Structures
1.
Amino acid sequence: MISQALRDARRYEEIYEKEISPAERPLFHLTPRCGWMNDPNGFGYYKGQFHLFYQYYPYASVWGAMHWGHAVSMDLLHWSPLPAAMAPDQVYDYKGCFSGSSIPMNDGRHLLMYTSVRQTSDPQGQGSGVQTQSIAIGNGVDYTKYGKNPVITAEGLPEGSSRFDFRDPKMWQASDGSYIAAVANNNTEGGGKILLFKSKDLLNWKYWRVLASNNGRFGAMWECPDFFGLDGKHVLLVSPQDMLPDDFEYHNGNGTLCLIGSYDEKTGEFVEEKDQAIDYGIDFYAPQTVLTKDGRRIMIGWMQNWDACAIRSPHEKWAGQMSMPRELSVRDGRLYQNPISEIDTMYLNTIIHRDVRIGGAEDVSLDGIYGRCMDLTVKVRPGDADKIFHRFSIRFAKKGKLRTSVSFRPHEKTVKIDRKYSGSCRAIVHQRRCLVPESAGGEITLRLILDRFSVEVFINDGRYAMTASIFTDLDAEGISFYADGDVLIDVEGHALG
Ligand code: FRU
């Protein structure tokens, strides 16, 4: 049975998506059918296709009562919209269907677990959203909420666990066939932690143990966990709120980080070895992963951040986009990310310039290197090893005073993303830097994935990633290179289409 609220959302999105022409959207980054999008949800493979759901408010380009939007893809680059999968239409979720995950059932059906939010008042009359975990089961298009929802509540949790911050379940199947769900939780002292629950049938769940805690580090509440084995290690992805900065590694506010360590499936014990930011740019949050049939772990994040949403006017027809799908690996104790290899199916051409000498007062443009949709790799080295330049910049989305840049400063060992001149008229974060310790000699490889409204930078074969949304007028298509000293570059560009 489809509720009236879901029917309304489906009718609305069908009418209003027609008001958005394909040219007003990114070329290949997923956007909501209309209105608002935040976190990726239920990212998975089911019946021969990738399914990606998302936090969705179709009726305006601002956050509201959360629905689940839905899209499918064969290659994670070309998406087909499906009707909204869920609306907040039950007593236990009328305040919103928050983030969650999906899993195929043994009988062929598809199961979604999400955070159901309802309102309650404390004795002082203050309202708060109580968060529980609920289930919907369907066929890949239509989903029915389970009659015994919610299936996980805060009852039975360790003392001090919040029932107001208890969300974003991520399920997976353990090697013995049983199921585990990792759920984010908090206590009144701001102790963010990830809890594990167990189930044999995906319907009945029992609290198991704490997987990881913030222990006074890394902000307060940790949102949107994902957890998986990769290259002999286990990786926990979380998106902490209220972070304090730590040098170049973590910035203030909402951030993303991963803990890399080892995991004992029998005891559920996770021993942390390393932590790092997932993305060192401005707009990346709440990522989720999927395992492809050929064994690749692919991650997609919300290419926006709560602290910088104001870059987009609430009067636009859509707000929020997903990041490029990124192939993950763990190498030398670090999480690496690279654009999904299928991106080469979108190449319209290949332009190569080798040993180009840059330096001096002028910006240099190169034949064939322009446009807003491009996969652009630039290998940088000093022209004179005894006198290393101070700054090398790639400027793009450029026209008149408009531009966004990625700059490399070998003496500081940093790469900076700067969208100050991208056309933004809000006092929000426009710049961010990433430390690249191995770059002091002036050598670096910068790969930029440009889509109409974003840049994603992959540094040194994916050792660091930096992402930013930009909403510069689309006729700002220039790309140029600048250096304040002697620099040699090899450039390989592929216009995307
Ligand atoms: C993260 C988040 C989640 C929550 C959802 C609500 O961006 O705050 O924790 O489930 O967004 O839309």
2.
Amino acid sequence: MNRALEGFCGGFTDADVFGMMTQLITPPSPAKRHGGSARSTVPVRGEDVDCFVITGGNRLRGTTSVNGAKNAALPIMAASILTEGETVLKGVPYLEDIKHLAVLLERLGVSVSRDEKGHLHLKVEDELNCHAEYELVRKMRASVCVMGPLLAKRRQAQVSLPGGCNIGDRPVELHVMGLQALGAEVELISGDIHLKAKQLKGTEMFLGGPFGSTVLGTANIMMAACLANGTTIIESAACEPEVVDLANYLNACGAHITGHGTPRITIEGVKTLRGCEYTVIPDRIEAGTIMTAAAVTNGEVTIPNCRLDHLLAFVDRLRAIGVNVERDAGGVTVSSSRRLMPVSVTTQPYPGFPTDLQAQIMVLLCLADGNSIITEKIFPDRFVHVAELNRMGARLRKEGPTVIVEGVKGLVGAPVMASDLRASAALVLAGLVAKGQTRVSRVYHIDRGYERFEQRLNALGADIKRLPE
Ligand code: EPU
């Protein structure tokens, strides 16, 4: 371990730190709570990789709540870098991505722990290290959201460029451009972005790119601008509920942010922020995934804490397909018992149809009575699930950023594998409805974003076994 990090990690080795963080961020005794095996599910340091063996054909029925939103929790955790005193976050899911960011924050000098209620405690120790190394950043792209807070708090940051991933190139030039507009000097040295600024200065900026707004880019600039001198206006800001949640957290810490949830966010800089207690919003993508699971199996599932107002574009498409979505005091209930209609789906920035539910709705449309069209306007290459679904009997044809879905009578089980979180979740949904057995390999992708996915689906009637590959 780098000597400079020893102070922050108590002189432990990388393996020690990872072990400690696993304890801190992994729920206690899953075997006791769920009757399953307590083995680790992350393929690190030569450990086993798990797969799911799914026996299809069961209708999902019952009630299940969703966890706090991963994509809200991650930037909020990073934002704790900006604060003095302790932040207590409620509703943070037990996920591999959360664990990775916790490890990175620990390396940067933020102490992170879970209490017995599962609340996450974050507190900046005396000195912050400013280097987010490639080893950690490459594991999870969301690590780039430490860039804005480090720069604002420490006046410098060295963050490894994350590189591409299985859903596309994933550039960060808009993040960098926005931080430069706030007064940062930027250099790229050996794959690391080096940023420094004596004092950030509020300014007006346009943050739109070729694919519209940027979620983590908006988060980075908003966080940095909180401690800048003067007023910052972000035009073409992302409107996603996760950005709104971050702004709400920052305001609860003493920031002056207005306009969040609209394309124009205004931030009046303040001198300091203080940590606070905050509850993360329910995960709309997890809710949408479970809703699709109910629909695809002709089941009936209620989600008590589903934020329907965060899912209106998705629900619009579900209803057009012929799926029933009802809301009452008990929550949102999704049911389906009739033929599915083909529709067109185009992913767009919020409030449009979310790219993070594109793979899941494709599974539903595979079984519709006719041809559907799905167009990806956020990540034009985000289709790693297409070839795998075709192995299960789907009829999908990709043409550029569009997939033509020819409805089929049914899917058949097969060994499949995907290398992206949402694509892997979609393969599980396909397995739930396929005839026979489906083996989904490398489910660590699912563990990145869905807490105990198989156990929760099994509680609704699914038949999924987690096995070592
Ligand atoms: N883009 C640029 N330049 C930039 C930044 C982004 O051209 O500097 C482009 C991207 O290539 C993409 C589009 O802008 O075409 C939108 O990307 P965005 O920056 O909004 O994505 P992100 O912030 O990196 C978050 C979520 C993703 C989700 C996208 C879009 C987190 C941790 N990640 O990523 O979630 O798909 O927004 O909504 O919040 C997932 O959870 O599975 C996931 C991938």
